[in-house]
Amino acid sequence: MTAHNANTVVLWEGPSRLDGKPLVALAAGLKSSSTNTKTGGMVQTYIMRSDVDPWSALATGDDVSICGPCKHRPQRTEGVVDRRKRSCYVTVARAPKRIYQAYKNDRYSRCWDAEMFAGRKVRIGAYGDPEMVPASIWASVLSLAAGWTGYTHQWRNRRLGGESLKYCQISADSAADAIAAHENGYGSFRVLADGEEPLDFEERCPASAEMGKVTTCEECMKCDGSGHNIVIDVHGAGKKHLSKRAVAAAQLFTLKRRSA
What is the pTM of this model? Predict the structure, then answer.
């Protein structure tokens, strides 16, 4: 019998709320804190296809089950997917792939309760969109937690109902998205293209490089869906692949604001 790794548990297995394909949600960092210098020692949760390893899912397009039509997914050229051309900051070949492999080798227990998260701060969706998992799972995980952060691109999907918005920031793909979130009282998180400036109601992430990394997500906790509108400069391995269309739109929006 394989010994279970107590640092990670399987939170849920079931169909994607978007397309019905099989998913798994896992929580890591229960015993040893995350070494992520930006987020700090938060519990990290991962949402992945349970039948396709995450690196392969990027190539086949099966990551749509966990990410939806996110613009940061791999770019397609004439129907061919290049999984290296993606602006997402998550390095899938590292933690997600390693956790998936251990999951397939039955290294993680499926037994957990809210007490495991008591007093901890939790990052829901270190990879994958929290909206793809039933909200009841997050409600249980976070019921005794000291706080959380989360982000969803699915806020306009009426069929899904935006159940995760009580815990998540809206992932804003444009200034217009951020304005819509703000006007409706939702928190948002937006990646700024090179040369783009925050809107008047937005604030820069204090854990970002451009702000001198004066704190961590674990200490800040503004990205908890409570109404803050946060921005960060484009960064990470996928920076160079941020859509040219998105960059052009951002630069045009900035020019219009300056000339107004």
Answer: 0.88
Looking at the structure of the chain, the number of domains it has is 1
Q: Is residue 246 one of the residues assigned to a domain?
A: yes
Residue with the two structure tokens 């390693």: 98
| Residue in the structure block whose two tokens are 């790794």 | 5
Question: Is 1 inside a domain boundary?
Answer: no
pLDDT in tens, 37-82: 889 999 999 999 999 999 999 888 899 999 998 888 876 665 666 6
Instruction: Say whether pLDDT at 104 is over 90.
Output: yes
Task: Report the candidate in 121, 145, 133 with the shortest Cα–Cα distance to residue 215.
Answer: 121
Query: 3-state SS string over the chain?
Result: CCCCCCCEEEEEEEECCCCCCEEEEEEECCCCCCCCCCCCCCEEEEEEECCCCHHHHHHHCCCHHHHCCCCCCCEEECCEEECCCCCCCCCCCCHHHHHHHHHHCCCCECCCCHHHHCCCEEEEEEECCHHHCCHHHHHHHHCCCCEEEEEECHHHCCCCCCHHHHCCEEEECCHHHHHHHHHCCCCEEEEECCCCCCCCCCEECCCCHHHCCCCCHHHHCCCCCCCCEEEEECCCCCHHHCCHHHHHHHHHHHHHHHHC
**What span, in angstroms and rounded, lies between the C-alpha atoms of 111 and 170?**
31
- The Cα–Cα gap between 131 and 155 comes to 9
Q: Is 3 inside a domain boundary?
A: no
Domain extent, residue 182, equals 8-259
- Position 217 in a domain: yes
